[in-house]
Amino acid sequence: MLNSLSGRFLILTVIFVMLAEVLIFVPSVARFREDYLLDRLERAQIASLALLADDMLSEGLERELLDNAGVYNVVLRRDSMRQLVLSSPIPGEVDHSFDLRDAGAWELMRDAMMRLLTDDAVIIRVIGAPSRDAGQEIEVTMDTADLRMAMVDYGLRVLVLSAVISVITAAMLFVAVRSLMVHPIKGVIGHMRRYAEAPEDARRIITPTARVRELREAEVALQALETQLTQSLRQKERLAQLGGAVARVSHDLRNILTSAQLFTDRIEMSEDPAVKRMAPKLVNSISRAVSLCENTLAFGRAEEPAPVLTLFNLSNLAGEVLEAERLAIGEDDISLSEDIPASLMVRGDPEQIYRALSNLVRNARQAIAATGRAGEILVAARAEDDAWIIEVADTGPGLPPKAQEHLFQPFQGGVRKGGSGLGLAIVAELIRGHGGTLTLARSDERGSCFVIRLPMGGMS
């Protein structure tokens, strides 16, 4: 109950209403004290007027007038003269004097709180202006015991009334909050749970019904989110089914093409000039088809295993990559070089870094070879404060803008005719497994440059 929204709102409402009543309580008690003292002054003035009307009042009647007024004596100032009109023995010395004629609000509240918090009864002198201009000043002496009892009684009644008002107000707000906010929120939560059970079911998408603007905006946003999620799940399901079908087709097609490769080996030995001229093209076409099937099957398998991190010499690894690519260059005029410090040690998985560099260098070689012109490929590396930077740069034709938009997305970033668009996607996945990043630093008519950044964090 207390941990719920409505429960906490109920408690806060009671607290805030009580605080408001406390702020009202102090001036209310001060006002009550002022009215009490003014009432005593008015009674004393009436008693003094009775004595002035009949100068021969008995001592008993005079005491009765003072008792009814609740004071010990009365002093009037009339015609610039002070006159002790009524008097009786005062049981002690006057402790304090209060002039109500020019007392401010803060002064009245301060005096009222001091009197309310003080248990001891004292004698005070109260000065005020007579009602209806019956003189310049009236002064009475009185005990504070009755005053404090009356203030306590009034204060308790105010507090009880405040508590009742707080409870009634809190209950009304509690009911209002539950009906206007809590119930709609619980409805949204219940809907979200039902939707989570079968997010592919479009019938479970929420329909906004809230009348409160903020809740309706939340329902509209949730509706848009669920609609988009349902569509995405349906699309992913279709893609998964399509991917399974493509994988099965690629597997069977790879077997067929592998057999075809065996036949082309014999065709190449034919002495027929036409066969000799067409055989290399057939072999290349079949090789590209086999490569596409293998890449598709490799990408369709589970994600790459976590890298086994070790310290290895990057210069030696890059040399192996470049040496393997030199064998594939053939008659193309492409030079391969490296600019890596011989002592540079890098922390990573050597096998996965080899695959990443091999893919990048192979892509660069194939891009240059497709132009029919000479070109260069450079693998450079350096160590910075918190990372190792590996760059693979080439002097090829650069990447077209459309290819750069989907560069690291599988089946979309391919540039070379017959390519699958999986090479860079695989490289990016391998580098992400190391906690690093693969970015295209530049690509224009002067060539392209890919940058691998491997963080040094976690070195022992």
What would you note in describing this structure?
It catalyses: ATP + protein L-histidine = ADP + protein N-phospho-L-histidine. It is an enzyme of class 2 (transferase). This protein is α+β, with helices and mostly antiparallel strands and 460 residues long. The chain folds into 3 domains: 164 residues, no CATH class; 88 residues, Helix Hairpins, CATH 1.10.287; 146 residues, Heat Shock Protein 90, CATH 3.30.565. 57% of the residues lie in helices and 17% in strands. It is built from 10 helices and 12 strands. A 5-stranded mixed β-sheet has the order 2-1-5-4-3. The protein has a 5-stranded mixed β-sheet with strand order 7-9-10-12-11. Helix 1 packs antiparallel against helix 4 and helix 8 packs antiparallel against helix 10. It is rod-shaped and about 160 Å long. The two termini are 52 Å apart. The mean pLDDT is 80.
Question: Percent helix among the residues?
Answer: 55-70%
Shape: rod-shaped
Structure classification: alpha+beta
The count of helical stretches stands at 10
Summarize this entry quickly.
With 460 residues, this protein is of the alpha+beta class. Helix content is 57%, strand content 17%. The radius of gyration is 49 Å and the shape is rod-shaped.
Question: SSE layout and pairings?
Answer:
Elements: H1 5-53, H2 59-69, E1 73-78, E2 81-86, E3 94-99, H3 105-117, E4 123-128, E5 137-143, H4 145-197, H5 213-268, H6 273-300, E6 310-313, H7 314-329, E7 334-339, E8 345-348, H8 350-371, E9 375-383, E10 387-394, H9 401-405, H10 423-433, E11 437-444, E12 447-455
Parallel strand pairs: 3-4, 7-9
Antiparallel strand pairs: 1-2, 1-5, 4-5, 6-8, 9-10, 10-12, 11-12
Helix pairs in contact: 1-2, 1-3, 1-4, 5-6, 7-8, 8-10
Protein name: histidine kinase
Catalytic activity: ATP + protein L-histidine = ADP + protein N-phospho-L-histidine
EC number: 2.7.13.3
